[in-house]
Amino acid sequence: xxxxxxxxxxxxxxxxxxxxxxxxxxxxxxxxxxxxxxxxxxxxxxxxxxxxxxxxxxxxxxxxxxxxxxxxxxxxxxxxxxxxxxxxxxxxxxxxxxxxxxxxxxxxxxxxxxxxxxxxxxxxxxxxxxxxxxxxxxxxxxxxxxxxxxxxxxxxxxxxxxxxxxxxxxxxxxxxxxxxxxxxxxxxxxxxxxxxxxxxxxxxxxxxxxxxxxxxxxxxxxxxxxxxxxxxxxxxxxxxxxxxxxxxxxxxxxxxxxxxxxxxxxxxxxxxxxxxxxxxxxxxxxxxxxxxxxxxxxxxxxxxxxxxxxxx
Length: 312
Ligand code: NAP
Fold this sequence. Notes:
- The protein contains 6 helices and 18 strands.
- It is α/β, with parallel strands linked by helices and 312 residues long.
């Protein structure tokens, strides 16, 4: 196994990680960015973004490609497609299938993943009617009927997107009011292919080879009913990707990593940025901001370490 030394190793190559890479690279510390996948993170799967400043409308993949090119400009060392096996935060060691990284500072930018409904049939029908990515799978539902679960921006935006393909899209929400932004709601309410199923939760996803039914419960009346659908898209929020670090640092009840305003975690020299962090807003723009702050403070931390080492 090859051993590599870097001043800072960034775990995760989504918008937060790539932004940190730009700032750390520009801060003239040796920087590695490691991902289990290709770089770009979640936005690579977004069809379009219309709220990233400077771009009135840009494809998610295109924007992330620009981020990666920008990190390249500052000579960042990229390690995509790495199976990350162990992370020892205290000793700043990261082991992948191919390398052992020794760092002075670690920046965690591993993001978050879709929360599961946790109902019968969900796991069984993944790829056969259950999907967490409308952009990836929407086209399979041309002239079909699908259900989206949730009432936040993701659920409502993706439901509207799915109406491009599907004949009908149900939005099953556990309350009778959406959490999504007003502008997103207005677009949805105007869309004739959308039908809202209020005060309801999914109890089970059923089918034979493919999904053909969801069992729902009205939480106010307790009434159980069936919706004939070909696909189910749960969009009920995110859970942080923290399996590699859980227990090594301070987290909130849902597992999101707690930081101070400099993105410093409870472990000295370890910073957390973007969706993995406890934060009130999870957007590309906030991930980018976290990346800048975290990297600047990681650079300061490394400079202090180096200064103290010379003094000794
Ligand atoms: P979210 O805002 O946390 O919304 C999750 C939705 O799922 C809520 O409506 C919630 O219901 C519902 N829910 C949660 N747990 C559930 C369960 N077990 N069963 C049924 N329903 C459940 O998550 P998100 O929509 O994924 O968005 C995450 C973040 O990204 C937010 O900050 C959002 O604003 C942002 N985002 C922004 C944009 C944009 O600006 N264009 C697009 C996408 C996402 P309640 O409402 O009852 O809590």
